[in-house]
C-alpha cells in the first residue's frame, strides 16, 4: 500500500522522521542507550562490512566511531572482504549492516569472521533474516518494510542506530561524560523535526531535477562524513534515473575528476557548516571557475556566505555537524526521486536491480 503516494520511494522518504523517532525510542531509556551485549570497552577495533548503500552507512559511521569514541574502524565492501580473507584481531568485533539481512556477500563475510573475532554484530532491518540469526548481537533498525529497490529510510535508520552505537562506544570507553552524552542525544532527538523541514523542499527539488534530467554526468562532492553521502547521492541517482553520477571526496577533485568539469556538468556540493566547510567551498569555487553548474546544499548561513554565483541552492535547517549526513540524505534521495520522475523511469523497480541480492 503506497498510502496515497505515487511511489513506494516517495512514501518511504516521507516516513523517515517517524521511523527514526521510533528507533530512538526503542534504544533510549532514562538509563541511557540500551544495547545489551555490547560493551565497547573490551573491543579494540571494528571491522564493518556491507554492500552498496549499507556500505556508505558504514563509511559515515567510521568517522563517528573514530571521532566520538576513539575506536579504530575498518570498512570494506563484502564482495572484496570475503575473498581477500583479511587477518583479524581476536579482540576486534565485526559489524555487518544490511537492510534485507540476506545479501549473499555480506552473509559470507559474516561467516568468515565468525571464529576469528570476539563478537559478531549486525545492524539489520529484517530481524528474522539469516544475517540477524547468525550474529551474536543483532540490532534492528526498525525502519518497517522497505519496498522500493532504492534504499531510503533503511539508510537513515542504519545511520541512526550506528550513531547510537558510536555514542555508546564513547561512553563505554570513557570518552564521554553524562552531560556530553545528554547533549548528543538531544541532537539526535532533533533529527525528526529537522527532517520534516527538509521534506518541505520537495517542490524546489522537483524544479532543479527538471534541469538535472538533461545532464549526461553529475558529480557529488563532500568532505568528512559528507564524503560517503556524496557516494550515496550518486548511487541513488544512477540507480533510478540512469544518469551517470559519481561521488568524490572534495579534496580529490584536483587529482583527476576536475578534468570532467565544463558548463554541462552539474556538481552537487554537500556543504553543511562544519569544520571543513571553508575547504569544501574552496573546492566548489574551483568547479565554478571551470563553469561547472553548482548545486550548493547547505544551511541558510552557508548558502548566504558562499552562494554567490552558484547555479542553484537548497537550504536546510542548521544541524550539529556530526549528524549532517543523516539530514542531508533527504535532499539527495529527493533529487534522485524527482530526476527519475522527470525522466519517466520506473522509480520503485529500476531496470536490472533486485531488492535483495541473494546471489553473488
Ligand atoms: C541502493 C541499494 C543497494 C543495497 C545493497 C545492500 O539503494 O538499495 O545498494 O543497499 O544491495 O543491500 P542490503 O542492505 O539488503 O544488504
From TrEMBL:
Cellular localisation: Cytoplasm
Signal sequence extent: none
Q: What is its main location?
A: cytoplasm
User: EC?
Assistant: 2.6.1.16
SIS domain location: 36-175, 208-350
Keyword entries, A-Z: Aminotransferase, Cytoplasm, Glutamine amidotransferase, Repeat, Transferase
Broad EC category: transferase
Q: Which reaction does it catalyse?
A: D-fructose 6-phosphate + L-glutamine = D-glucosamine 6-phosphate + L-glutamate
Please give one Gene Ontology molecular function term for this protein.
glutamine-fructose-6-phosphate transaminase (isomerizing) activity
Q: Which residues form the active site?
A: 355
At the top level, the lineage of the source is: Bacteria
Q: How does it assemble?
A: Homodimer.
Explain the purpose of this protein: Catalyzes the first step in hexosamine metabolism, converting fructose-6P into glucosamine-6P using glutamine as a nitrogen source.
Record-given protein name: Glutamine--fructose-6-phosphate aminotransferase [isomerizing]
Organism ancestry: Bacteria, Pseudomonadati, Pseudomonadota, Alphaproteobacteria, Rhodobacterales
Q: Which gene encodes it?
A: glmS
Complete protein: which residues are present?
A: 244 to 603 of 603
